[in-house]
Amino acid sequence: MGLKNIIAGSKIEKGASQLWSTSFIFLILVSLITAMGFNMVYVIISKYAMGITASLSIAGVISGIFSIAALVIRPFAGMTADIVNKKSLCIIANLLMGISVVGYAFSHNIPMLLFFRILHGIAFGVSSTANIVLVTGYIPKERLGEGLGYYGLGQVLAQIIGPNLGVYIEGNYGFQFLFLAIAALSFLASGMLIFLNYKVSGKSDRKVKKTITFDSMIAKEVIVYAAIGGIFSFGNGIVSSFLILLGQERNIQNVSIFFSVGAVVLFALRLFIGRIVDRQGLTIVVNVSLVVSAISMVLIGVTPVLSLLVVASVLKSIGQGGGQISLQTECIKRVDAARVGVATSTFYIGADIGQGVGPMIGGAISSSFNYMVMYIACAVLILVSMFFFNVYQKKSRCRATAEEYAIQADEVSACN
Q1: Distance between CA 262 and CA 311 in Å, rounded?
Q2: CA-to-CA distance for 59 and 50, rounded, in angstroms?
Q3: Alpha carbon distances (Å) from 365 to 72, 90, 252
Q4: Average pLDDT of every residue of the chain
Q5: Closest residue by Cα to residue 344 from 331, 355, 335
Q6: What are the residues whose beta carbons fall under 8 Å from the beta carbon of 382, sequence distance 6 or more?
Q7: CA separation for the pair 318, 296 (Å, rounded)
Q8: What are the start-end ranges of the H helices in 137-219?
Q9: Residue 135: what are its φ and ψ, rounded to 5°?
Q10: pLDDT score at 406
Q11: CB 252 within 8 A of CB 305
């Protein structure tokens, strides 16, 4: 696509099919910058905490409290994103993330570090939710899956580059320089967002008094999809937590290549999976993704060699990438424009729970049995979730058909 066409599409009209606007590209760059900072810090925060305290358990709390804070704030973040200016909310969230990381650099005791870690988690929970709500305003609804797929490219690229870059900077220049560099990225993202061409439109941007209720914070109509998305994160959490240990137990060298291959495959998948989601629909994409993910877990559980782990990595990325993009897209499609924030936060809540609970349950299974049983049990859970997903989809189709017949019957009665 030529530069002229990209620039021409910068103004988004309601109902237009133009995707590659300058604003959309701009938001992808902002996403890359924000995600880069996150991926640079999460790999070294435990090491930094260990430099302050000799307790490994406290260092674990410092690392994990971030996710808990993000999880707790998500329902409120989704509701807020639906009733305030989303651009301003993203700017504030990025500023808070920058302030939090500056706080890391000058934290010399655990209570102070814990405070800034919680603040960082809250800011991240707001930012990640509000960013999705903001970018959907620049994506035509009929190309939502494709647009979200492209939008995630920056985040995947940050997963590939960020951790190694963070370790390199810390090793050569120290923690304080690293934290200040990450904070500078967050401040840069805030500054860039100031120049985003943003127009207030729709009910979700008006000043509305909204009572805090369950419905205002959780989108009940997408809970099933959020739960299935959480199953993908459940498997991801188990792999991230125990794959290195599995490699050590089985004497498999260079296990870390699993993550590198997976990130590259996920990046490539993002280039076209969204179009498949938009054309083929939710049911077939999720079913294929669940089957492929289950196979990848079985392969990890039984593999004695690196080559099978690489195959499992490719399959896992295909399953996770296709499944999560399609489910997130459907969550947004299932609600009206005024509730996109709540739907987005509901989806992320499922992902947060799955990512957090997975290692806990996996650790209990592996300690009672072994890693093979743990991964096969995860594969079984994935296939069981596929059964419930298809039952729900069938009921949804039947309900939609019944409603359509009822509407047609009402129209016939009105004509008579």
Answers
A1: 10
A2: 6
A3: 27, 40, 22
A4: 84
A5: 331
A6: 231, 235, 290, 293, 294, 297
A7: 10
A8: 144-151, 153-173, 175-194, 214-217
A9: -70, -30
A10: 63
A11: yes
Dump pLDDT digits (tens) for 141-181.
888 888 888 888 888 888 888 888 888 898 899 999 999 99
Beta carbons of 338 and 204 less than 8 angstroms apart = yes
Among 336, 358, 332, CA closest to 135: 332
Average pLDDT over residues 83-100: 93
Sorted by where each starts, the structural domains of the chain and their CATH numbers stand as 18-197 (1.20.1250.20), 218-404 (1.20.1250.20)
Closest CA to 239 of 315, 177, 185: 315
In whole angstroms, how far apart are CA 41 and each of 104, 204, 221, 342?
10, 33, 35, 28
DSSP summary character for residue 11 = S
What's the confidence (pLDDT) of residue 48?
A: 86
Structure tokens at 42: 């999460």
Distances (CA, A) of 163 to 37, 50, 106, 166: 9, 18, 22, 5
Rounded CA separation 163/266 (Å): 16
Q: Give the alpha-carbon dihedral of 187, 348, 343, 385, to 10 degrees.
A: 160
Closest CA to 305 of 264, 246, 379: 246
Tokens of 262: 């997976």
Asked if 257 and 310 count as a contact pair (C-beta separation under 8 A), the reply is yes
Task: Please identify which residue in the block is written with the tokens 């179009």.
Answer: 275
Query: Locate tokens 């594969």: which residue?
Result: 379
pLDDT digits (tens, 9 = 90+) for 332-364: 888 887 888 888 889 988 888 888 788 888 888
Long-range contacts for 71-74 (Cβ within 8 Å, ≥24 apart)? 71/125, 71/349, 71/352, 71/353, 71/356, 72/122, 72/125, 73/121, 73/122, 73/125, 73/126, 74/125, 74/129, 74/345, 74/348, 74/349, 74/352
Query: Is the predicted pLDDT of residue 209 greater than 60, yes or no?
Result: no
* DSSP string for residues in 248-268: HHTT-S-TTHHHHHHHHHHHH
* pTM exceeding 0.70: yes
d(CA 107, CA 123): 18
| DSSP for 60-119, written as a single string | HHHHHHHHHHHHHHHHHHHHHHHHS-HHHHHHHHHHHHHHHHHHHHT--SHHHHHHHHHH
* Predicted local distance difference test score (pLDDT) of residue 171: 87
Q: Report phi then psi at 14, rounded to 5.
A: -60, 125
Task: Name 256's Cβ contacts closer than 8 Å, sequence gap at least 6.
Answer: 244
Residues in the chain: 416
